[in-house]
Prior knowledge:
The chain is mainly alpha-helical and 274 residues long. The protein is built from twelve helices and no strands.
Amino acid sequence: xxxxxxxxVGGAASMAVQFQKLMPMLVHPWDARWKRGHFRPFLFxxxxxxxxxxxxxxxxxPDLAAAGAxxxxxxxxxxxxxxxxxxxxxxxxxRKVTGGPAVAMTDxxxxxSLPSRIVCRTVLVCTGxxxxxxxxxxxxxxxxxxxxxxxxxxxxxxxxxxxxxPEGTMxxxxxxxxxxxxxxxxxxxxxxxxxxxxxxxxxxVSGFAIRYGSDGSGLVKARMMWRTLFFGNFMVVIMIRLFAxxxxxxxxxxxxxxxxxxxxxxxxxxxxxx
Length: 274
């Protein structure tokens, strides 16, 4: 069941990341303007995401080729590279941005202010917690974080002790000789972690890299990303919720994960649609 959890949540996170690039193009706020640079923050972030995903596929390409599954990975890398080149071409050709008319500053705002301090604090706390776990799963799979409650149960449930057993442990003695047989599980675990981190990157950019601006354009840019993040977060929350009962049977409580992401989703929805 833990392996299925990794596949489904990883798939939802991957869809959420791709959603960040697609939805602003199709459905954006009525006051969003290409000539004023409102689309540039999420486009820059999309290019970074594409490059990172391509490098991840390239890292696993030998293992995928050994299993005869490298064709789809090569296609993904080619598509991501072409998309990145198109976006970079647009960003370079449209680097001259025309600002809108100055707006009155209210609520203590100034051109260098953040679009919303509440959203920033929420992202810092909630995304920080998610990034901690996802970063460990990506860069140090199988390593137990001692101050995280029930982290060893989480790693056992997600099969991390099979593909990356910690050295000097009982799991390493039992599974150390079979780790190569679980390279697919490791790929899926790191793929889930990478997409959760890329989703966190979009959140951090929307909260901290955008400034209000003298024409108030920062709020338009941020809301554009918050709307998409609302739907992306919602998909991940629903998928984790589906496995909550199964996790309880393994003594793993996912309620804190759901509440953390659920609250962040609520904040994105409130500040992007209201």
